[in-house]
User: Fold this.
Amino acid sequence: MNGVRNLLRARELSAGRGVLRQALLGRDRPWLQGSSCAQSFWLVPVRSIRSSAALSHSELVHSARGDKEKDRGFRDGSLVPFDELFERAHEGDRNKAAFSRAVELFCQRDVRRRGHIEFINAALRKMPEFGVERDLDVYNKILDVFPKEVFVPRNFIQRMFNHYPRQQECGIHVLEQMENYGIMPNKQTKFLLLQIFGEKSHPIRKYQRLLYWFPKFKHINPYPVPAALPQDPVDLARISLQRIAADLSAKVTVYQLPLTDISDAGKEITQLHIVGIQSPDQQELLARHNPSRPVFVEGPFPLWLKKTCVYYYVLRGEPLPPEEKEEVIDSERNFYYPMHLDLDLDRDLWDDEEFYVDEVVEGPIFAMCMAGAGDQATLAKWILGLQQTNPILSQTPVVFHLTPGPRELQAASDSESGEEEIPQSWHMKQEL
Amino acid sequence: MHPLPPRTPEEVFPYPEISNEELEEINQFVGPVEKFFSEEVDSKKIDQDAKIPPETLKGLKNLGLFGMQIPEEYGGLGLSNTMYARLGEIISLDGSVAVTLAAHQAIGLKGILIAGTDEQKAKYLPKLASGEHIAAFCLTEPGSGSDAASIQTRATMSEDGKSFLLNGSKIWISNGGLADIFTVFARTEIVDNDGAKKDKITAFIVERAFGGVTNGKPEDKLGIRGSNTCEVHFENTKVPVENVIGEVGGGFKVAMNILNSGRFSMGSASAGMIKKLIEMTAEYACTRKQFNKKLSDFGLIQEKFTLMAVKAYVMESMAYLTAGMMDRPGVPDCSVEAAMVKVFSSEGAWICVSEALQVLGGLGYMKDYPYERYLRDSRVLLIFEGTNEILRMYIALTGMQYAGRILTGKIKEMKKGNVGVALEIFVNKFRDSMGRKVDLGLVGKDGVAHPSLEESSKKLEENIYYFGTTVEGLLRRFGKTIVDEQLVLKRVADVSINLYAMTAAISRASRSISIGLRNHDHEVLLTNIFCTEAYFKNNYAMAELEKYAAENLDDSIKKVAQQVLEKRAYICSHPLERTF
Assistant:
C-alpha cells in the first residue's frame, strides 16, 4: 500500500515534472529519494494527463490534502480535472472575467503550481469557448501561471541539454496559439518569458521570430478582407461586388431592398435583395454590343470572404469572331498629330513585349449582381433595372444559364417534386 | 565622413520613429483638424475676399492650433517637432490659414519661446496659446529684405534707463493688422567691452497696447490673399526693458534661431498639399477620355503623376527626418538640414502644382477649380522664410566653413610645397580616376540600408565621396574668396540638397521594408527613381565644378549678364534688321 501510494504520489508530482527534475538535480526532497523515484521516472509516459487523473481517482479517500474545495476538480470523477475547473468557473456567461477567475483559482490553489502544463494546455483549448482567443492580456495571464525563475538554466550543462523541455514546449504552444490567431505579443509577454525561461530559450526564440515576421506579414495582402464583415446582405453585397470589380469608377446600384410584406390577402410576400454593379467602361461596351447577338446571364459563382460565401451572377457576351472586330482608325481623328503612321514597318522582334502564352479570348462582361435568390424571376428584375441605364438591353435577347445554387439544391431536396434546374432559355423582348 | 556638418550613419539610420502612444495621440489630433478643414474652411471665399472670416479663426483657436508648440503649462498643446510637422500637413490645405498660423507661432512667438525669460513666457504665452492675442514677426523693412542686418528701425534708451523708444517702420508683416504682440528687431547702441559704441540689433516684444503702433492697409497679393500682410509703423513706442528678448545686442542670434527652427515644417506642408493634389488630379485623369483612351493611359500624363509622387515622398522623408533629429535629445542644431528641406520642398511644390494644373488642361486654369489658387499660393513658398537663393548660399557656405576648418591644414601644407602631401593628393586623384570603390557603411554585410536599396545606396556613397573631393578642390582653388563665387556655391548647395534628400529617402525606405509597412515595394521604386535622377544631376554638377570643365558655362553666363545689365536691356539686334 505504501509503495503504491508513493508511486501514485510520484506520478502526481511528475505531472508537474519540474519537481522531479529538481529531485534529480539533488534538491532536498527526502520522500522522493529511493527506487520509486527512478521507477516512476521511467514508467510515466510523456502525456499522462488521463492516466494520472484516472489513477489519482483511486486515491480519493486517502488524499493528503484536506481542503475539499480545492480538490473537487480531482474528485468529481471527470477524466480531465482542469476542464472541470473551467466549467465550474463560469457561473453565467463565458467571458474574459470568468476565464481569468479560473486561471486565478488555479494559481491560488498551489504555490508550486503542480500540474501547470496540463492546466495551460486545457486553458488554451478552452479559450475559443470563452471567446478570449484574441485577447493578449489573457495570454499574458496564462503565461503568468508558470512558476518564475525555476526553469532558467543556471550552468552550461543545463543550457546544453534543453532544460525543462516539456515546459518549453508548453510555452511554445502558448505562443503558437497566439500566432495562429494573429496576435502580436507585447513587452509584458517578453518580460514574462524572460523571467520564466531565461534568454536563449525556445519560447524566447519563438517570440523573437514572431516579432520579426508578423510586422512583415501584416500588410502583405494587397486586398485585405475587413475583419468584421457587415451582417446586412445589401452592405455585404456592395463590398463584395466592389472587391470583384476592382474598379474605382464602378457604380453599385441596389435594385431591390429585402423586405417582408404582408399583402392584403394575408399572404407573406418576401422580397430579396438585388444589388448590381457596372462601370462606365462596361456600359460603353454594352452600348456598342450588336443587339442581334444574345447576352448570357450566368451564375451563381461563389466568392469566399474568410468564412462567408456569397454568390454572384454575371451578364456577359460572346467574344466576337475576328471578322467582326472593328479596328479602323480614322486618319482625321486627331487634329494635332497623326495617330496612325502610314509606314510599312512593324514592331521589332526584340522590342515586342506582348505576352501570348496565357491569352485566352474571353467575351466582355457587362455587369455583375448579387441577389438573394438565384431564380430567373429575381434576375429578370435585375435585367429590367439594368435596362434603365443600358437601353440596348431591351432589344437584346437575354439567355439565362443558371446552375443550381446551394439554396436551390436544398429547396429542391426539401420540396416534393425535387426537380433539377437544367439550363433553360428564355427569350425576353420587351418594349419600353 | 562627408564635408557637411557631418551626419554619421547612426544619426540618420534608422529613420526616426515615434512611439505607439505618441502616434495614437497625434492621430487623435489629426481627425478633428481634417474635419474642420474639409468642412468649415471655404478656401475659395477666403481667396476672393482676401480675408479669413472670424468664425474660421475662432474654430482654429478652439482646436488649439494657435499654440501648437507652446508647452502645456502655458496653455498650449506642447507638441514636438514631429507632431507639429504632421499637423502642418493638414493645415497646408489652405495656404492663407497656414501662413497666418505659421506667422503667429513659427516665427511670431518663437522668440519668446526659445529665448524668453520665464517672466516673459508667463506673461505672454498663455494668451498667445489660446489665440486671444496674435503674434507677428517684424524684421523686414523697405530697405532691407534679405539684408536683415541693415535695418533702420532704432530703439533708443530713455533717460531713466527703464524703457526703449522704438521708431521706424516695417513692411510685409504677416498678421500685421491682426496682431497684438510683435517681435520687433531694431538697432540699439551698445557700449562694447573696450568702450566703443556700436550699433547692434536687439529683439523686443512690443505690445500694441504700448501705443504708437499703427498699421497700413492690407496688401493685395498674388497668393495667400487671406493672410493679412501690411506695413507696421512704430512712432515713439515705449518698450520696457523687461521686454528685450535675450540680451541687448543679441538680436542677430535670436533672429537666426527663430528663422532656422521653423523651416522644416514646410516640407511636410508641401507634401500634404501635393498628396491632396494627386488625389484630385488622379480622379480627373482616370475618368476623362480623349481619343477613346483615358488620360491616365497616356505616358506623358503618367510621368507627371510619378513626378508628383516622387517629390511628395522625398519631401516627407526629409521633413520628418529633420524633425526627428531635432526632437532627439543632444543632437546639434539642424539648421542646415532645415534649410535644405525648405529649398527642396518649395521648388518641388511649385513644379508639382504646375504639372497638376497641366493635367487638367483648360479646367485647371479656371477659377472654379482650386488648382490656380494652389499655384498662386505655392509661388510665395520660394520667397518667404528666406529666399531660396539666400538659403542656397547659407547651405553652401556653412558647409564650406566646416569643411574648410578640417581641410585648411592639409591645403596649406600642399601650397607651401610639401612634397609628401602633394604626392598623396596626386595618388588619390589617380586612384579616383581609375574608379575607386567607396564604402561608407551603407551597403554590405553590416550595412544600415536594406539590401533592396543596394544600388541607390552605392550611388549615394559614390556621390558623397566625390563631393568631398570636389569641395576640397574648390577650397584649394578659391580659399575664402569662394564667398563671392555664387554660381559655384549654387552647384555645391544643389548637390548637398540632393545628397540629403537621397539619404532621407533611403533611410525611410529601409525602415519601411524592415518593418513591413503597406506598399513598401512602391516606396522602394520611388526611392530608386529619385536616387538615379539625383545621382545623374549630382555628377553633372560636380563635373561642372572641375577647373576648365567643358560643361562649365559660368564665364559665358557672367559675360552675357554683364553686357545685358550694362545696357539694362536686351542688346541683340532685331532679327529683321539689315545692314545694307
Observations:
- Chain A touches chain B through twelve residues (CB under 8 Å).
- The two ends of chain A are 97 Å apart (CA to CA).
- Confidence is low (pLDDT under 50) at residues 14-78, 416-432 of chain A.
- The longest strand of chain A covers residues 295-305.
